[in-house]
Write a structure and sequence with these properties.
It is globular and about 75 Å long. It has helices at residues 2-19, 32-44, 101-108, 127-136, 152-164; strands spanning 55-59, 65-70, 118-123, 140-145, 167-170. The mean pLDDT is 93. β1 and β2 (65-70) form a beta hairpin. The protein has five helices and five strands. The termini are far apart. The longest helix is centred in the first third of the chain and has 18 residues, at 2-19. A five-stranded mixed β-sheet has the order 2-1-3-4-5. By secondary structure, it is an alpha/beta fold. It binds zinc ion. Zinc ion (ZN) is lined by residues 100, 102, 125-126, 128-129.
Length: 182
C-alpha cells in the first residue's frame, strides 16, 4: 500500500515538469562579425589622432580574439611631442611616425603564430599593412570603410593581397546601434 503512493507522486511530478515551457536562448545577440567589427571600432576610439581613428581586431579561426590595435605613435614617442599634422614638411607631419592599427595589432600579439587568423579593421589596410598581414600568415581581412579605394596605396595593397591569396571582403553593416555607459 505504502509503496503504491510513492510511485503515484513521482508520476505527477514528471507530468508537471513536461508541461512547463522550455526557456529559449535570447534572440538579438551580436553576430560574430558585429562583435569583432565592434571591438575593432572600439579599439580605434583609443587613438589620439585628431583626424583619423582606425581600429583592428585579430581573431583565430575558431573565433577567439588574439590581438587588437589602433593607430598611434610607437612606445616612447610622446603623443604630446610628436606631430599630428597632415600637412607640412615630412618630419613635421604624422606619417613618418604613426603605426597603423593593423601593424600594431600584429606586433602586439605575443602568443606565437597568427597563421590562418582573420583580421577585422575599420579601414582597408594600406600597402605597408598588407605586407605585414601577408607575412604574418593572416588569411582573411574584413574591412569596413574603403574610402581610399582609388589611392595607389590601396590599389597596391589589393594587388599584393590578391597575389598572396589573402581573402578580403567588406563588412556588411547591419545598422544596429550599440550604446552603453562606461
Ligand atoms: Zn596601414
Amino acid at each position: 500500500m505504502r509503496y503504491k503512493i510513492v510511485i503515484r507522486q513521482q508520476y505527477v511530478s514528471i507530468e508537471l515538469r513536461s508541461k512547463r515551457r522550455k526557456v529559449m536562448k535570447r534572440s538579438g545577440y551580436l553576430s560574430w562579425d558585429e562583435y569583432f567589427m565592434g571591438v575593432a571600432i572600439m579599439s580605434g576610439m583609443r587613438s589620439k589622432d585628431p583626424n583619423s581613428q582606425v581600429g583592428c581586431c585579430i581573431v583565430s579561426e575558431d573565433n577567439k580574439i588574439l590581438s587588437m590595435g589602433y593607430n598611434g605613435f610607437p612606445k616612447g614617442c610622446s603623443d604630446d611631442e610628436f606631430p599630428w599634422d597632415r600637412e607640412g614638411s615630412d618630419l613635421e607631419t604624422k606619417y613618418f611616425y604613426v603605426t597603423h592599427s593593423e601593424l600594431n595589432a600584429i606586433l602586439n600579439y605575443r602568443g606565437g603564430s597568427l597563421e590562418g587568423a582573420k583580421l577585422y579593421v575599420s579601414l582597408f589596410p594600406c600597402n605597408e599593412c598588407a605586407k605585414a598581414i601577408i607575412q604574418a600568415g593572416i588569411k582573411t581581412v574584413v574591412y569596413d570603410s574603403d574610402k581610399y579605394a582609388l589611392s595607389p596605396a590601396t590599389i597596391a595593397s589589393k594587388r599584393m593581397l590578391d597575389a598572396a591569396g589573402v581573402r578580403y571582403y567588406q563588412y556588411a553593416r547591419t545598422g544596429r546601434k550599440i550604446s552603453f555607459e562606461v
